[in-house]
Amino acid sequence: MSFGGIFYAAGVEMNWPNQIDRTVRNFKGDNFGIVDVDTLSRMNEIRARIDTETPQQLAALHAAVDAKGALAAKLRARDIEMNNIAGASQAADGSLTLYVR
Fold first, then answer.
1. What residue numbers bound the domain in which 46 lies?
2. CA–CA distance, 41 with 11 (Å, rounded to integer)
3. Cystine design at 47: which of 40, 52, 75, 93 (Cβ 3.0–4.6 Å)?
4. 3-state secondary structure 19-73
5. What per-residue confidence (pLDDT) applies to 16?
């Protein structure tokens, strides 16, 4: 599991808040990283998306992460609480980046 580093998105539409829950549900493997939202510039496109997510989009994202049992367990082992997950993006190589507050 890698921490840090921002991965480039495989497709812009799959990383929009209204689709990211599907992206997370389809995620396979262990290749994921964790990035603190506060390390992203306010001008960063991912940060802008995270800042405009609705409560429903966040709930769908949290449910998607929770549905990935192995991923959720690894996050809990790192003391990452589900409610602190603020966003996610997937890179062309299939890796997933979860953004936390």
1. 12-27+42-87
2. 21
3. 40
4. CHHHHHHHCCCCCEEEEEHHHCCCCCHHHHHHHCCCHHHHHHHHHHHHHCHHHHH
5. 60
Q: Look up the pTM and report it.
A: 0.81
- Alpha carbon of 94 to those of 16, 49, 73, 90: distances in Å? 16, 20, 20, 6
By the 8 A CB rule, do 21 and 60 touch? Answer: yes
User: What total number of domains does the chain contain?
Assistant: 1
Exposed e or buried b per residue across 26-51, where buried means at least 16 C-beta atoms within 10 angstroms of its C-beta: ebeeeebbbbebeebeeeeebbebbe
In a domain, 78, yes or no: yes
Question: pLDDT tens digits for 2-54?
Answer: 444 444 444 445 566 668 888 899 898 889 999 999 999 989 988 998 998 89
